[in-house]
Structure formats: structure tokens, C-alpha cells
Amino acid sequence: MRQSQLFTKTQKNAPKDEMSVNAQFLIRGGFINKELAGVYSFLPLGFRVMKKIEQVIREEMDAIGGQEIFMPSLQPKDNWEKTGRWSAMDDLYKLKDAGNREFALGPTHEEIVVPLVKKHIQSHKDIPFAVYQIQNKFRMELRAKSGLLRGREFLMKDLYSFHANEKDLDAYYEKAKTAYWKIFERAGLKEKTYFTFASGGTFSRYSHEFQTLSEAGEDTIYICEKCKNAVNKEIKHETPKCPVCGENKFKEEKAIEVGNIFKLMDKFAKPFDLKVTDSDGREKNLIMGCYGIGLSRLAGTIVEVHHDEKGIVWPESVAPFKVHLIEVKSQKSKVKSEAEKLYEGLLNNGIEVLYDDRDESSAGEKFADADLIGIPWRVVVSEKSVAAGGAEIKKRSENKKEIIAINKLVDYLSKK
Ligand SMILES: [Zn+2]
What we know:
single chain; alpha+beta; BirA Bifunctional Protein, domain 2; Rossmann fold; 2 domains; five-stranded mixed beta barrel; five-stranded mixed beta sheet; 31% helix; binds zinc ion
């Protein structure tokens, strides 16, 4: 992509009411645009990041047998009344059409997925299975001040698994846990993420959260000094001891909840009468697990964890491009022709590249933009680099610079 054609531009300042680091850098870098508090448009750079995150999550969900579907945001009130959540859920967006019909804007999809599954399965032979979707969710947040960390409308992956018995659910729950760790590892968050026990499990004693340490976090967690599992605030009040190892020494930290998993058991199967005939001919309720990850929140968390004073430092797995190629304006036509040649070479070899070919920008402006946008590899073609025998290459995360011959660069970057 030529930066001269990118319709979004970087900005010197973020809106004054955006206090969070993630919103400031993402808005200034031209990744997102704020429409209203907690509601953002994703611009070309931001949308590329979201697609990368989506792909990581999709691959890991497919690997544990998840089947991808897509369910509606607009959901019938009746379903929500059946589960009692029409009146019980404070942050549910409710709307009414001209014909006085009422709807919920889905904050989660049990009210759709359970009746859907009921239509399609009959016997124990149809289970276990799991479905998931990646789709926008809505939550009536009265306070939405943390950029992508807390949205009123946000992209989320929600997976639902269906089982005949608790043992089978438990086994799948462990698989999902492993898949979640893989996702956080690939997104560059594993080191700072803790498996956290939370109260609020409906039938089992706990539900679980994945919490990433960050000063921007709105949650407080307590990390067990012995086994490194964590508990959240509510659990800490309930039990002074670590639920895993029994230790009672904890370290208090601020964290962002980047994922959560629940054993729902038959909480939603019951109101919708979701049953299957067992091998002994008796009907019984299905039991369920649900597993969520907010993609936009994950993007915001990555920025909170991976940045410096100049801008974002994207992990390569989710970066909008792998290479930021910068042509430093010069009177010598060789600089432009070498930069163009390199750009073509990278494209032809399938290396994702943003090419800063803008004529009106100074070298200083281009370098500042590159630091702000945070693409992992910066490659500069200038009079100086050409005279030194090639292009200057530098990682966004490091200070070391190196000159590599232009005709060797594509090969060099292909292997990185
Ligand atoms: Zn412990």
C-alpha cells in the first residue's frame, strides 16, 4: 500500500477526552475514528489489525473443532424474557420499532444459539459440538472512557459448546483454555496474562478470566506468589486462600480482562427445553460452556502493553503491515527508483508493506509517523543509505540500524 494513497492521515493530537494510551495512539496513528464514547470506526490500518487478530482467533477456534456461524445482533424480546434476562440485565440495549415490537441488541448470544441448536439436534449422537462467531456486541456502558478497552459496540468472538455430561464439558473446557493461551501467545500478551479465578460461575464454583497486567486495567487481580494463578477481587473477599495451591500470599496488580470462560451447565438449556435422548432412551438437558474474547479490547490491550513514548510497537502477528518502507525525498532520481524497485520486490514476494512515498513530507515527519504507527520493520531508502550500498533497516522494537544491499533485502525480510 502506498502511503500517499492511504485516505487516513496521522494526527498530532488525539481528542482531549481520550485519556487512554490505546485510544490516543490509535486515533493519532489513523487506526480508528471516534464516533461517540465507546464507539469507533476502524480505518484501513486498524481494520487490518482487526483482521489479523480475527485470523489468529479463528485458527485456534477451528483447531478445537469450533464451527463458525454468524448470528443476528437484533434479537427477539421473547427469547430474553424466557431466560429472565430482559429485566435482569442492566446493560442490555432495548429498542422498539414503529410497530411497537421490542428487541434486544445482543450483548451475548445464548438467547439465539440455544433455540437454534434445539432445532437441529435430536439425539446424543449429535453431541458434543461447538459453534462460534466473530460479531459485534452491544453493551450499555454508562462509562466508556478507556478507548477500545470498554466499548458500547465492540467486536467479540463467542464460542458455545454443547455436551451430554459434565465430564465431557470439563474436557472441552481444558481444550478451550489451551486454545486461549495460544491466542494470547500469538498476540504477544502471554507473558503478562494470568489465569484468574472469578466468582459468578452459575453452577460451578468459579468462572475464569484471562487478565493481562496493565496500568490501564480497570480490574484488580491478586496473583498467588506460589503457583502464579490469580483471583479477582470478589473471590479474594470470599476466600483468603489460593483456590489452586492453598497459599495465602498474593501480589495485587491492575489488569485488563482479555477473555473469559464459563461453565453454563443447563442454565440456558432449561428455559428453552433443550434436551436430547440419551443412549438409555431417557431425555435430558444438554449442558453448555461459553467462551468469550473481545477482539477490539484485545487490540487496545496490545497497544497498552506494546508501546513506547513515540507510539505503538506492534507484535508482527497482528501488525497492519510487516514492513514500513520509507523513501527520503532526494534530488537524486536513484533514491526514488531504488525505493520503487524495493517496493515492487516486496509486493511480488508477498511481504506486506506500507510504502511511504509521500513527496510533501520531510524525513523527520516520516520517521515520526513510522514510530507512531509501529510497523515491526522500518526500511529507509535515502541518499545516505544508497551511498552506503543499500537501504537502512531497523526494527521498531530495537535501536540497532543496519545497511543491507537492496537486491538482498527481499530475501532477508522473507526469512524474518
Ligand atoms: Zn496458588
